[in-house]
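Moderator note: this is an archived Q&A kept for reference. The question asked for a predicted structure of one protein chain; the sequence and the answer are reproduced below.
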Amino acid sequence: MPLSARFLTSASTLAECPPDDAPEVAFAGRSNAGKSSTLNRLTGSRRLARVSKTPGRTRLINFFDVEGGGRLVDLPGYGYAKAGKAERARWSQAIDDYLTRREMLAAVVLIMDARHPLQPFDVQMLDWAAQTGTPLLALLNKSDKLKQGARIAVHRAVARQLADAGIGEAIPFSAASGLGAEEAEARVGAFLAGR
């Protein structure tokens, strides 16, 4: 059952974020991993989060209120080379501040392109989650683009890394086809409900 959500606000700094008074699940990932498409799939809305073929479109931290309580938070994509150095540094600072200082952060959903998993930023996020004890769900987006054998191998490799770090689970996923969407919706809903 998709999570029903509506846009709340955008913030470029921690100070602009809404009050830290509701459980939040943050969506993180490299530019072009499909964060906005994933949010749209999980909420059953084509237009909740703006999707673009141009990497690096999400430049602000976007907050969405979930019906029944809690928020989904779309973080700027990491590693977008065409943005200026100063702008990338600002995004990086905003993401770091958000992840380290939001008291109500319940979990992080790390979206990886299944064809290129465990890039340096992904590994950094896994290390951060392990160090802070933050629950993490890895969605291996674009898994529909892999043959079944490759999909199973990627899922096993990422699941093993998560198990070794003791921080969460991985789900083969596709924002385009809906593969793994029901399982992902259930996990995100459980995070928001404190389970």
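Archived answer notes: The helical segments are 35-43, 85-101, 120-132, 148-165, 181-192.
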